[in-house]
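Progress against Task 2.4 (sequence-to-structure conversion) is shown through the following example record, which the project officer requested during the mid-term review.
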Amino acid sequence: MKIKDLPASVAASKADWLPGTTWLGFTPTESDLGSRNKCQSTIQRQFGSGYVIEYITETFQKPNPGFDNDAQYIADLEAHRERAGRLIAVHKLRTTSRDLETIIGPEEFRQLQDMWAQDGKRFRWSVAFPIVQSFRIIDDRKAKEILGPKAYARLYAHSSATLRPLVDEERELIADLEIEPVESKNAWIGIEDEFALAESSQINPDTERAISRDLAALEGMDDERLARVKRRAAWIADRFIRERQRAGNLTCDECAFDPNELASELGVKPRGFLDVHHKHPLDEGVRYTTTADFALLCPTCHRVEHVRIRKSKVSHGA
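Structure tokens generated for the chain above:
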């Protein structure tokens, strides 16, 4: 898989000296609520509905006095040496009302501030965005080699307290970088935050029934969570269909069957000849799923796909 295969573009870059694994943090100008809200809205506007590519700086900051021999600092310093100057990951971030202390827990938050907060201002990285989907970049070249000196200098020559928005030329330079998915431990935040959005949205009943059938094999959840997971999946599927309709792309994703001519002849809507299909039903409620997890299939291809899924379960002993 390559960056250009992602369902949305890379909107911006984050320069870090510590790799983000479960969250990316930003430090507001002050600790008050107004400063935090301003910082959060700025970052949210910068990444929008796109992804963020993470760059590890060549330099590594010194911790507060007394932490030079801290085991975590030494481990982080060693890890930094291996990644310095490189583009390491692409992340999907989620805006949430949860603060950093809630996301990582009070003990880890306290240690983070003890080690890194400057001038006694204990709100370092307090505006945090959980990473709900993440891909490791499989390319060991330095960022300057990938981007070229001009783009590299524009993005990383100066420090920034926010993200660094990419332009189209820079997106083209990273488009063919190979990536692979990695586990996102905070995927649950994105999933659960969207339960409320799904509950308050109108969803086509046919879509909801179709997705409920696709998720019939989900196990290990209580009835209330299962209902919420199914509702969220149907909400995403409904959005997926509307996006395809707006783009005028109503064809089968498997065999390319185009129902438009037939629908025009019969005086019906093309959408009625295609089924919405969840490509990874067992990931629902576990991985942060998006519109990229759905497909439009003609009834024959849809039936074939479900036969494949059943055979796969049997071969894996499910």
